[in-house]
Amino acid sequence: MGGAGESGVDDRRLLPVVVRMTSGRVGPTQPPRSRRGRARESSGRPPRDSGEAAGPTSRGRGEGGAGRRGGRAPGRLRSVRKLSQPRARPEAVSVTMAMTAGTTTTFPMSNHTRERVTVAKLTLENFYSNLILQHEERETRQKKLEVAMEEEGLADEEKKLRRSQHARKETEFLRLKRTRLGLDDFESLKVIGRGAFGEVRLVQKKDTGHIYAMKILRKADMLEKEQVAHIRAERDILVEADGAWVVKMFYSFQDKRNLYLIMEFLPGGDMMTLLMKKDTLTEEETQFYISETVLAIDAIHQLGFIHRDIKPDNLLLDAKGHVKLSDFGLCTGLKKAHRTEFYRNLTHNPPSDFSFQNMNSKRKAETWKKNRRQLAYSTVGTPDYIAPEVFMQTGYNKLCDWWSLGVIMYEMLIGYPPFCSETPQETYRKVMNWKETLVFPPEVPISEKAKDLILRFCIDSENRIGNSGVEEIKGHPFFEGVDWEHIRERPAAIPIEIKSIDDTSNFDDFPESDILQPVPNTTEPDYKSKDWVFLNYTYKRFEGLTQRGSIPTYMKAGKL
């Protein structure tokens, strides 16, 4: 039973606790006035004591709540609007308790409460932004359909039939988007890639029989290695990119332990595998692959992104041998090498007598190929393809991708990258001293056009080709005769032999791992509390959910 406390105030007359966001200033909080209180003021009667608690008859009928007659809740609406609008970071966040005496007690908000507020804000923002995005995408698909029908010159009856079919697909898409996608919807066939933070598997969707590449990333590693921003960038790029030059992502989802990206499977392997099979490429072959990579990089730049990790490992080949870009920030082992502090302790070391310097070009190529695959799977990686300005604190822009392309072109024609060394530290020093270390071996023939283009790529960013746009690169004499508009329609310079849609002969063999083991309910409690950083990771592409097909007999379990 309530009585007078130490302050002499009747405990039964304490005001309700009011939780509010402050900007470093905390003061007494006035309770909301009920209609009865406003009536007293208008009739001249003295108002109820400000310390008297609101009775049950006035609950929910003040300005902050909805009355029994169905009135709106303006206070709640204002709170939702504030959550959905950007605002300055508050200087202090507190919980305020106002009492009858007018005193105020302030308690700091816990980290747990801060995270819950952040999650609520992000959830609202993502919900409404996704609604807008879905509407825009649906309108875009409808416009594409109308344009395609006009170009085909279809009759009105045929157009009506096409629209009806499209409407059914849209309805099916909305229904399927509400279904939860998970590991149980896919059958794992084989491991085809492994990196520092996860692996890539060949999988088959059980209901359609379609073959995909599933990239699996461990959440714990993403948090520990501070890769959350990178995986978010990769997911966003794959969602936004819908052209011929970027590997297509159909779905993304997550569970308690891992993140999953379901992408198209490109059976041609990657450029690194192709270069390891051959000593060098001819200039005609090099022209083809460099031309396609120029268009692929430009497609990323037009979306407003910088790849920053252009290298042969990330140039995938489709079933016809054409190039597609992949790996936008993950599973390559090179992210640590993108941080300046990783190399900061190396800058004070004097240049050493590199062991590679006394080798001829043939021995360099053999040594490089021997170590190349191991470096691709390591967490340190190799900085061979990274532009020098990326290592510096002065900043960089999209031109760093053209430097990387120049290094790849050198490797195609010479047989190894220009700055290859036995250790990443030595490679770093060579890259930073490129004016002295970028040389062409006299025993390997190379045309002046090819040499000039490499030197135009691998130069300081202010003078690098591409400053004036991609047309400057296309106009270089090395690309004379290239049909830029129809390059994907021509046969590939080196044909790819594919026996079936699930042929993995162009990939290395990897042992099985436990990355797909069931997750116990009590596992990783520390990371469970931080799961909100992966909010809105789930994605489903229209083409992926609306395509259908039966499972071919040879692709069923045990038939591979």
Automatic annotation (TrEMBL):
<keyword id="KW-0460">Magnesium</keyword>
<dbReference type="GO" id="GO:0035556">
    <property type="term" value="P:intracellular signal transduction"/>
</dbReference>
<dbReference type="GO" id="GO:0000287">
    <property type="term" value="F:magnesium ion binding"/>
</dbReference>
<keyword id="KW-0067">ATP-binding</keyword>
<keyword id="KW-0418">Kinase</keyword>
<dbReference type="InterPro" id="IPR017892">
    <property type="entry name" value="Pkinase_C"/>
</dbReference>
<keyword id="KW-0808">Transferase</keyword>
<keyword id="KW-0597">Phosphoprotein</keyword>
<dbReference type="Pfam" id="PF00069">
    <property type="entry name" value="Pkinase"/>
</dbReference>
<protein>
    <recommendedName>
        <fullName>non-specific serine/threonine protein kinase</fullName>
        <ecNumber>2.7.11.1</ecNumber>
    </recommendedName>
</protein>
<keyword id="KW-0963">Cytoplasm</keyword>
<comment type="similarity">
    <text>Belongs to the protein kinase superfamily. AGC Ser/Thr protein kinase family.</text>
</comment>
<keyword id="KW-0547">Nucleotide-binding</keyword>
<dbReference type="GO" id="GO:0015629">
    <property type="term" value="C:actin cytoskeleton"/>
</dbReference>
<dbReference type="GO" id="GO:0005524">
    <property type="term" value="F:ATP binding"/>
</dbReference>
<feature type="domain" description="AGC-kinase C-terminal">
    <location>
        <begin position="480"/>
        <end position="549"/>
    </location>
</feature>
<keyword id="KW-0723">Serine/threonine-protein kinase</keyword>
<dbReference type="InterPro" id="IPR008271">
    <property type="entry name" value="Ser/Thr_kinase_AS"/>
</dbReference>
<keyword id="KW-0007">Acetylation</keyword>
<feature type="binding site">
    <location>
        <position position="215"/>
    </location>
    <ligand>
        <name>ATP</name>
    </ligand>
</feature>
<dbReference type="Pfam" id="PF00433">
    <property type="entry name" value="Pkinase_C"/>
</dbReference>
<dbReference type="GO" id="GO:0010507">
    <property type="term" value="P:negative regulation of autophagy"/>
</dbReference>
<feature type="region of interest" description="Disordered">
    <location>
        <begin position="1"/>
        <end position="93"/>
    </location>
</feature>
<dbReference type="InterPro" id="IPR017441">
    <property type="entry name" value="Protein_kinase_ATP_BS"/>
</dbReference>
<dbReference type="GO" id="GO:0005829">
    <property type="term" value="C:cytosol"/>
</dbReference>
<keyword id="KW-0479">Metal-binding</keyword>
<feature type="domain" description="Protein kinase">
    <location>
        <begin position="186"/>
        <end position="479"/>
    </location>
</feature>
<feature type="compositionally biased region" description="Basic and acidic residues">
    <location>
        <begin position="39"/>
        <end position="51"/>
    </location>
</feature>
<dbReference type="InterPro" id="IPR050839">
    <property type="entry name" value="Rho-assoc_Ser/Thr_Kinase"/>
</dbReference>
<dbReference type="InterPro" id="IPR011009">
    <property type="entry name" value="Kinase-like_dom_sf"/>
</dbReference>
<dbReference type="GO" id="GO:0004674">
    <property type="term" value="F:protein serine/threonine kinase activity"/>
</dbReference>
<dbReference type="InterPro" id="IPR000961">
    <property type="entry name" value="AGC-kinase_C"/>
</dbReference>
<dbReference type="GO" id="GO:0010508">
    <property type="term" value="P:positive regulation of autophagy"/>
</dbReference>
<dbReference type="InterPro" id="IPR000719">
    <property type="entry name" value="Prot_kinase_dom"/>
</dbReference>
